[in-house]
Amino acid sequence: MSDDTAGQIGGHIVQMASFRVGNEEYVIDIMRIKEIINPLKITPVPSSSDLIEGMINLRGVIIPIVDLRKRFRVPQESWAKQSKYIIVAISGKIVGIVVDDVLEVVRIRRDLLKPSPEIYQGREPGIFLGVCEHQGRLLLLVDLKKVLDPAFLSPFADERAGQQNG
Question: What is the rounded CA–CA span in Å between residue 5 and residue 7?
């Protein structure tokens, strides 16, 4: 068996976008990302969740914005110059997430993704799908559904119910 074949048997390559919130680095599946934009003016709206910063109008599409610093309980500071909005598609919805910096595209073999450490699982079960190492850094793989669920008072509950009943 050649070295190339041995490398491919371990699993397919997954591409993830890495970003920073506070001092931690995270990754999400690149296939979830619609686009990455510079911050736009947020219009505050009444919401039952303090995680929703408000809405933006992106080329005629109204998009709710969730600040991941609040979601991950990172101390609130003024937004960094390199702050970005990552526009993601999740369960048929378009949502913007605020991050401190977008870093790079990371390519990792699927078999190198490890389960999340219990210290993260215990804080909020299931919020991270796993962890991987890239260039000497540990990156946490974010489960966007579980991260965004509290912001929208379980808007994904209908989808979960459909999957359980179907």
Answer: 5
